[in-house]
Amino acid sequence: MAINLVTKFSPFVDEVLKTESKKSLLTNQDFDWTGAHSIKIYKITTSPMTDYDRLGTGTGATGSRYGEVASLGATTEEFILSKDRSFTFAIDKLDQDETAQTLQAATALARQTREIIVPEIDAHVYGKMCLGAGTKPAALALTAANIYDQIIAAGVALDDAEIPETERYLLFNPSTYVLMKKSPDIIMDTEISNDERIKGVIGMIDGARVFKVPAGRLPAKFGFLLGHPIATVAPTKLEDYKTHDNPPGISGSLVEGRICYDAFVLENKAKALYYQAIV
Predict the structure, then answer these.
(1) 219 Cβ partners below 8 Å, 6+ apart?
(2) Is 200:211 a contact under the CB 8 Å cutoff?
(3) Between 20 and 30 A from 168 (CA), which of 65, 98, 159, 262?
């Protein structure tokens, strides 16, 4: 005798796990694009030092004991937001009812943000940071034996560029992070606050906060990035999400979203980014 077994559906969605963005900890929001399509900032030159002519014997055109009068230059660099992105989807009223209310506009929008929007923005920002890094040594094969030496070299480069020693960060992908953990020379300080752990800080190496980012959000040949937040401005000018209930032509919900963003490495602060690529 045949028996029809019961199939039971649980009102539970098997969500895709996604890593939280670290962008806000690695960049800054020093400029405001509100009401403007682009922003221009000045770069001002300086005057060279010279020996003071105490006896006034100089032959310069000005006859100044302080030396030749230099004219300061004032050039600009312009930042125009290039990413104006959008999405839309509809949820039929019966689809929502007949999936035990698991298909809803609010949760679908949160899912869209977590799985699509945040990874896209992260990949763009990290790509711009690596491309605009002021120091990019030749690509090499990182190993557990040489990775600490390369990190030290990166720190020296930032020191020589007079980059602030506080707030520096080290960015790894999971593969490079494994090499770092296998290195006999690296002793990572894991005594960090709970607040920093929640934000994604793994530990500290030579005063720099360590972050691990999924490889899919980083350039293909990414080794590691040592940097400081002063180098990169990553604005989000517009972030607009709307849910329409029963709009014309749709029985259910229509969700629309638009986000305008970009990332820029400041020319005079590019040396605050050291990008090591791998072969």
Answers:
(1) 126, 127, 130, 277
(2) yes
(3) 262
Say if CB 216 and CB 163 are below 8 A apart: no
Confidence band of 13 (pLDDT split at 50, 70, 90): low
pLDDT, tens digit (0-9, with 9 covering 90-100), for 130-179: 999 999 999 999 999 999 999 999 999 999 999 999 999 999 999 999 99
Helices (H), 89-200: 93-97, 105-112, 118-132, 147-160, 174-182, 194-199
Beta bridge partners of 277: 222
CA atoms of 168 and 20, how far apart (whole Å): 20
By the 8 A CB rule, do 103 and 7 touch? no
Cβ count within 10 A of residue 257 = 19
Beta-bridge partner residues of 80: 38
Distance CA 32, CA 1 (A): 74
For residue 77 the two structure tokens come to 């660099």
| Residue partners of 45: CB distance under 8 A and separation at least 6 | 72, 73, 74
Report whether 203 contacts 190 (CB < 8 A).
Answer: yes
C-beta atoms surrounding 16 within 10 Å? 8
Render pLDDT for 232-266 as a digit per residue (tens, 0 to 9).
999 998 899 999 999 999 999 999 999 999 999 99
Helices 147-160 and 174-182, packing angle to 10 deg: 100
- pTM value is 0.86
Instruction: State whether residue 76 is helix, strand or coil.
Output: strand
**Cβ(186)–Cβ(129) below 8 Å:** no
Give SS3 for 6: coil
